[in-house]
Amino acid sequence: MVQAYKEAKTPFGVFGLRCAPSGELWIGASANLAAQENSVRFSLKMGKHPNRGLQAAIQAHGADAFSYEILETLDDDKLTPMGKTDLLKRRVAHWVEALAAKPLIGAA
Question: Is the pLDDT of residue 108 over 60?
Answer without folding.
Answer: no
